[in-house]
Structure formats: structure tokens, C-alpha cells
Amino acid sequence: MRERVGGGRRALVAVVGVVAVALTGCAAGFSGKGAAGHSAGRAEEDGSIPDNTSIALTETGHAALRKLDPALLAAVRAAAVDAGAAGIELRVTSGWRSKAYQQRLLDEAVARFGSVEEARRFVSTPETSEHVVGKAIDIGPTDAADWLTRHGADYGLCQTYANEMWHFELLTTPGGLCPLQRNDASG
């Protein structure tokens, strides 16, 4: 579940019902901001995007997009054009992240779950995170992540983790087959 569902988080919680409290806690903790959060007014040079927000794929001045792998960003933008024709807007809930920001996310997950092992199911280390090297992007809201899960391979984009419907990486050639999803970020 690592990063976030963006605005679709509430919809997901409503569908799940009985486990809503647990999912709300997990999603909030891995929204790309964590418990500490960030103010919307400061420059987000660490790649963070304020809680409960997202950015458009056109906001290239934001480090979360500016420092993404150009091929990944181009693939997501191409997908966004087709998604838009279907009435779906792809928004970025997380992109490139600094090592320090990734470490903060991991530290917050350890505090929430009580162990590094459990936290690693949801948050990669700075040394292993594809976000830190600009090779991963999180898409929201839920309808956009769902659209990209179904159509992403047409652009080379694949959902990497079974427990993170919003996390995509460029893992195949356009029209190719995506590799099997990993259960979670722990490897």
C-alpha cells in the first residue's frame, strides 16, 4: 500500500466498510507525506506533495515531476491523453523523492507498525525505492489508478505491487506484458 490513492482514498474506505478504520490509517500514513505532513506553501524540493492533494502532469516545476525519468513521464503523459478522452484525469500523488524524504516515510511507517519488517511491506528504503531514482510514479484518484492498471501496459506502465494500485513503473515496452506484481514493497 505504500504511497497513496489521493482523493480516491475516501471512496476506497467507503467501499471496504468494516475495515475502513484500518485502511484509513494505512492510507494516511503512506500518502507520500506521512504524519508530519508538509505545508502547501513551501517549495517541495524533496518531492513531497501536500496531504490530500495531487499535482497535474503539467506542473513540471515541481521536483516530483522535474526529477522523474523522462521516459516514465512521457509514458504517463501519453496515457493521460487517452485517459482524458475517456473522461478520466490522471493526477500525480507522488513521483521523485529525495533520499531524506523517503527515509522520513520509512521512519513514520516503523512508528506506525512497530517494526521495520512490517513497515517495509508498505515503504521501501531510500536505497531500494524506485521513487528515489525517479523510476516510479503514484497516480490518483482511484478511478485514474484503476484506468491505468487496466490500460498501462499499452504505454509500458505496470502496477508494481499488488497492495498499491496507484504505484506504476515503466517495466515493459508499449503494448508488452507487465511482469507479475510483487505482493508488496518488501521484495
Q: What is the ordering of alpha helices and beta strands?
A: HHHHEHHEHEE
Residues in β-strands, percent? 5-15%
How large is the radius of gyration?
15 Å
Cα distance spanning the termini: 13 Å
Q: Which SSEs are present, and which pair or pack?
A:
Blueprint: H1 9-16, H2 20-29, H3 63-66, H4 70-85, E1 91-94, H5 99-113, H6 116-119, E2 136-140, H7 142-151, E3 157-159, E4 167-170
Antiparallel strand pairs: 1-2, 2-4, 3-4
Helix pairs in contact: 1-2
In short:
The chain has 187 residues and is of the alpha+beta class. It has helices at 9-16, 20-29, 63-66, 70-85, 99-113, 116-119, 142-151; strands at 91-94, 136-140, 157-159, 167-170.
Fold and architecture overview:
It is globular and about 45 Å long. The chain has helices at residues 9-16, 20-29, 63-66, 70-85, 99-113, 116-119, 142-151; strands spanning 91-94, 136-140, 157-159, 167-170. It is built from seven helices and four strands; from the N terminus they run ααααβααβαββ. The chain has a four-stranded antiparallel sheet with strand order 1-2-4-3. With 187 residues, it is an alpha+beta fold.
